[in-house]
Amino acid sequence: MKKFIFLLFAAAMLVSCQNAKKETTKDADKKGTVTERSAMGYSVKVPAGWERSDTTYMGQNVTFIRHPRENEGDEFMENANIVTEKVGDYDIDAYLEASIRNMESGLTNFTHEPVQDVKMGENDLKKMRYTHTYSGVDIDAEVYFLIKNKVAYLITCSVSKGDRDKYAALFDEVISSFRID
Q: What is the pTM of this model?
């Protein structure tokens, strides 16, 4: 599991520059936000103008939700990513501890704030804010952890350093809308 978690975080960063396979259905609400359902086993609202791509990575479901580049010099596309992993009898605290250890050893300049218990939408989650550097870009991120039916769901929201407040409402909308089908 150690290498897998790190690889998923690395894949999440890489997708900010790449495209993945898109296999979803859409329903628009009054604000133009789109609820996208897929064969991934969950549904989530995607902010208007953002793209969602679903793929399988190392046998696990991965969803990338990306803000489009703002201009040609934009080095990082803000994103929310959902990753699932079968975890068997791992409880949330053990899973979270293993994830932090992997991030400490695998992410450059990784620092994190204390973990918080939060309720977003219908889900009780663990939330952790952190920073790191990826390909020379300083990143502010937060990750939400949920384990249900022996499957871990990680929702990670990433922005360029200093842009967290600019995208906070959109990320809250994505996380609050998350539903396991």
A: 0.81
Is the CB of residue 49 less than 8 Å from the CB of residue 39? no
The pLDDT mean for the chain works out to 82
**Backbone φ and ψ of 116, nearest 5°:** -120, 150
HSE of 124, CA atoms in CB hemisphere, 13 A: 3
Q: What is the pLDDT of residues 142-172, one digit of tens each?
A: 999 999 999 999 999 999 999 999 999 999 9
**Dist. CA 157–CA 147, nearest whole Å:** 18
**CB of 42 closer than 8 Å to CB of 155:** no
